[in-house]
Description:
Blueprint: H1 2-22, H2 38-41, H3 47-64, H4 71-86, H5 90-103
Helix pairs in contact: 3-4, 3-5, 4-5
Amino acid sequence: MQRFWISVTGALLSMSLITAAAGTSTPAKVATPAKVTASARVAPLTRTERCTDLSRQVDEALETHAAATQVTAAKALQRKGDRFCANKKQAQGIRMLANALKLLGVTPIDPGQ
């Protein structure tokens, strides 16, 4: 019995050496990870983060669109939006900040989309 296993092991070893020397071994298939979409990589923003992001966008828009006719109204909406966000009413704050941007003629940038 022991001779049988020694001969089988020898045969397998010689076959693998011959295959490797001849270069005919088939490469092992490597599983590639599925493609990940951009939206799957980016974690969704919390409402608080969205408030902060929109407020920053309003600040930038006020600097670049200082000559707009609705600057005063946009600043008032920004203050209201910041107040709502600070008082745990982020949904209302986000709406106010988005409206402030729209008054200035700027489309709010949503990094989640």
